[in-house]
Amino acid sequence: xxxxxxxxxxxxxxxxxxxxxxxxxxxxxxxxxxxxxxxxxxxxxxxxxxxxxxxxxxxxxxxxxxxxxxxxxxxxxxxxxxxxxxxxxxxxxxxxxxxxxxxxxxxxxxxxxxxxxxxxxxxxxxxxxxxxxxxxxxxxxxxxxxxxxxxxxxxxxxxxxxxxxxxxxxxxxxxxxxxxxxxxxxxxxxxxxxxxxxxxxxxxxxxxxxxxxxxxxxxxxxxxxxxxxxxxxxxxxxxxxxxxxxxxxxxxxxxxxxxxxxxxxxxxxxxxxxxxxxxxxxxxxxxxxxxxxxxxxxxxxxxxxxxxxxxxxxxxxxxxxxxxxxxxxxxxxxxxxxxxxxxxxxxxxxxxxxxxxxxxxxxxxxxxxxxxxxxxxxxxxxxxxxxxxxxxxxxxxxxxxxxxxxxxxxxxxxxxxxxxxxxxxxxxxxxxxxxxxxxxxxxxxxxxxxxxxxxxxxxxxxxxxxxxxxxxxxxxxxxxxxxxxxxxxxxxxxxxx
Length: 497
What we know:
By secondary structure, the protein is mainly alpha-helical. The chain contains 22 helices and two strands. It has helices at 10-23, 25-46, 53-60, 62-76, 84-102, 112-120, 126-136, 141-169, 178-183, 189-226, 228-240, 245-264, 275-282, 286-297, 300-303, 328-361, 363-367, 399-408, 412-431, 441-451, 454-472, 479-493, and strands at 384-385, 388-389. A two-stranded antiparallel sheet has the order 1-2. α1 (10-23) packs across α10 (189-226), α2 (25-46) packs antiparallel against α4 (62-76) and α19 (412-431) packs antiparallel against α21. It is flat and about 130 Å long. Mean pLDDT is 76; it is low at 182-186 and 258-279.
């Protein structure tokens, strides 16, 4: 036996399986690639017109592929590491025996890695296999199911990680559309094949570890039930201390003589009874055996299961300290300290009671702390917005009249600027709007429309657009439109408002 067997918990057994996979990685992955890679290439070639079917078939055939690492580990654990050709020859008969089960009900077995050795290595079928699994799965099936879930998620993470690596290495001027890569009906053929390659790579990395951990759980369970570690220890002791030949021959001679005497000299109670009658009387029937076994199993020793755990310090034991003679002063302190501790405990309880009473009496005072509302910060009125000075003291009193005079004088840009700046200044000062200095005309338009009536919002939008056309495009509004803007200015930004 090349594996150190001893009773382990489930997680230690899984870790042993991972160590077995790392130790015999060459025969495991060599046989895996020799069998799985050609099958995967053949499936992709046959499913070239229906690309989504290829990874589904590879996933469905996983139980057949799992026989490869199981065959290698089951031989290597007992000192007979098989080669690639031997593994392929040994796995094919297992495929024929378990093909129907693996591709039907066995495909959805969450404890597949633990149950496979019972079918493949012990060769049990039907009722015997179910009874055997019922015994082996006690206190172990949950660990096997968790192993399946964890390895499935690790495989998924590895698959996603390969796509993330592809994204990181892809040129920045030609980004990958991952939604199209996964869900688009008309994908490029090479991208689909790349997706299959990533899935096959993730499965190739994780599946042997999964089977090795399940096989280690199986070995650990049999070690707990059958005492394999004790048997192996006795065999190693026999190899280290061989029996002397003369002493062994003497013991065998005495044993043979005793058997001969027992056969020749009949027992007094059986004198005069024929040999056939003796054998019939001595051999119990199968029904009697079952009754005796059932009676033994009903004893309390066989009906009680108890698992105990305890902490044990594995370091060096502390050195023994010399025992000093106790002085009178020390004895007095030892008698005084318990009294002081009880007094301190009583004082603490009194302080706690006083604190609770104070909280109840002053509840109006301290409950107000939870209703604290911070003071609103005063709005900061900007002086400049997108290059326009909106300080109120720099604007005339009758802004629409002055703007119309400038328009009639041919100063169209100045007239539109005065009208728009006046609207901004009145709006910011009136509503205490907290605008940042980097706000744009669009930001002001959205804020004003949200905080004002629909008519005022429409007017401000018309004024903003007229200003933008004049300032940035050099297109002045029609005089009638400008006159309407001046007339409507007081309705929305007048002093009365």
